[in-house]
Amino acid sequence: MDNRFQAQDRFADGAQYIGGRLRPGTSGQMHHVIDPATGDKVYTYERAGRAEVDAAVSAAREALPGWAAATPGERSDAMHRFASVLAERADELARAESLQCGKPIKLTTEFDVPGTVDNTAFFAGAARHLEGKSAGEYERDHTSYIRREPIGVVGSIAPWNYPLQMAAWKVLPAIAAGNAIVLKPAELTPFTSLLFAEAATEAGIPDGVVNIVTGAGRDVGEHLVGHPDVAMTSFTGSTGVGKRVAEVATATVKRLHLELGGKAPFVVFDDADLEAAVHGAVAASLINAGQDCTAATRAYVQRPLYDAFVSGVADLMRTVRLGDPFDPSTDMGPLVSHVHRDRVAGFVERARSYATVVTGGGVPQGELAKGAYYLPTLVTGAAQDSEVVQSEIFGPVLAVLPFDSDDEGIALANDTPYGLAASAWSRDIYRANRATREIKAGCVWVNDHIPIISEMPHGGYKASGYGKDMSSYSLEEYTQVKHVMYDNSAVARKDWHRTIFGDRP
Ligand code: NAD
Asked: In this protein, which residues make up the domain named Aldehyde dehydrogenase (predicted)?
């Protein structure tokens, strides 16, 4: 218990980070951050109101010209220092993330924090690699070249499932490209976004380049999205809220980047390594208690392997240790809140009328009963068009369905509105290659499911949104391309003027 992050002391000055310092909100609305493992209040803060959004956007506007004019090398140096500061604070970041989300400390220590440090180092390097076409004479007597410029003030909105990594995915490409940013984390999970912004300041990134406003989605979020001085909206969250964000952003013709929900299929062909597929399915459906937009949620298993796969997954799920997130032996913590846990439980309770809950499907008793825990859950016998197969549950729930032909397996994988991620399991290179071509998703793994890397893009197809996070693709999203064209002839009356002046000499 002593090891827990002491939020009330650490953020005594408030949960808004504007112009390089912490300050309180002025909305008059208090928010309690709850430890989902215990139900205890761990931090109370005054949420941002519209005034904080306006102040943060002003701070970003003020910082923008200087930051945009810095050379790529200067931005890169500051971001390398940023990566070092984050690495020095790894322990605090991991404890803060575990406290607010209920994530096991081994997940935050081995995944969230090192992933964020690596991302920061990647974008420090990428800042010096903005690409464009070569300058040249594409039209006779004219020289053309490309300028790749920052967009301006970026307004970003992030979800609660990976607060630190989401802050990193939003902030890093934006500032590497010379923009300034105002980020709104989810109200439930402000700690690591604030620590991230503080580390940026400590690394020498100028005040106002990175700002955090912590407030309610509908009020503060929409004010940020609709703000006339914000040039781009970058949103990660559910598809439903993403549609609303797109509507609001349209009124001011903002550039939009939407990373939305997922319902990732996990397709097991009959020549797959069964042990690998079973272990892969349990790990990929339970990572972060299933609150992962790319988590394996629908396993399609070719008939010859179906029974063995179901019993293997059920047996392995029963061995997963639920517990205190701060205990290094805990495999799975609680869900982010009791409200969300009850929502997840609702999907499973409704599924009982049309499917079989093979294991899980309830809350653990004893010590863990006061937390927002939910047991690893396996559902079989659901129809493809049922809620448990089609809707994003965002909890530790895996549905397994059989299929016969390869055509059918791939068709089922593609049969939801989402297209964020998928995996194919086979030892046959031709089958696996076909699956990677035909599954409509922004990422397809072969014989694995979940790993992400800074160099490669993450982003959706279909209702999972558009735009990419991480990688040089995301850097490009945060720039605009300007064509500059010079006349080389120095002639007053140019040939093409004939189209206006006719044949006059
Ligand atoms: P959410 O959509 O409820 O909220 C996301 C953010 O939007 C929060 O900060 C919230 O305060 C804000 N918000 C809510 N209403 C708003 C409005 N009207 N205008 C502006 N902002 C508003 O999502 P969540 O429950 O926090 O997170 C889970 C969702 O995020 C899942 O659907 C998951 O798939 C998705 N997600 C996607 C990715 C990805 O990369 N595609 C990554 C992580 C999470």
From this structure: 29-484
Rg (CA), the chain: 25
Question: Cα(387) to centroid of ligand 1, in Å?
Answer: 20
* Ligand 1 site, CB within 6 A: 157-161, 184, 186-187, 217-218, 221-222, 225, 236-238, 241, 244-245, 259-262, 293, 392, 394, 420, 458, 460, 464-465
Residue 2's pLDDT is 61
Show me where the domains of the chain are located: 17-130+143-260+464-483, 264-446
Residue of 163, 126, 115 lying closest to 471 (CA atoms): 126
55-67: pLDDT as tens digits: 999 999 999 999 9
Q: How far is the CA of 263 from the centre of ligand 1 (A)?
A: 15
Is the per-residue pLDDT at 504 higher than 80? Answer: no
- β-pairing, 418-419 with 461-462? antiparallel
CA-to-CA dists, residue 111 to 115, 119, 153, 469, angstroms: 6, 12, 30, 17
pLDDT at 505: 66
Helix (H) or strand (E) holding 246: helix 239-250
Q: What single letter denotes the amino acid at residue 408?
A: E
Give pLDDT, residue 163: 98
Predicted model pTM: 0.96
pLDDT, average across residues 267-296? 98
Q: Which residue has the tokens 């709850």?
A: 34
CATH numeric code, 17-130+143-260+464-483: 3.40.605.10
Atom of ligand 1 nearest to the CA of 169: 40
The closest residue, in CA terms, to atom 14 on ligand 1 is: 217
Task: List, by residue number, the catalytic residues.
Answer: 259
The predicted-structure confidence for 27-50, as pLDDT tens digits, reads as follows 999 999 999 999 999 999 999 999
Average pLDDT over the chain, rounded to an integer? 97
User: What class is the 264-446 domain?
Assistant: alpha beta
The 3 state secondary structure assigned to 20-42 is CEEECCCCCCEEEEECCCCCCEE
* CA 503 to centroid of ligand 1, rounded, Å: 61
pLDDT at position 274 over 60: yes
Do residues 61 and 180 touch, judged by C-beta distance below 8 A?
yes
Task: Measure 11 CA to ligand 1 centroid, in angstroms.
Answer: 24
Mutate to test the pocket of ligand 1, among 236, 390, 397, 477 (most ligand atoms within 8 A of CB): 236
- Cα separation, 405 vs 384, in Å, equals 16
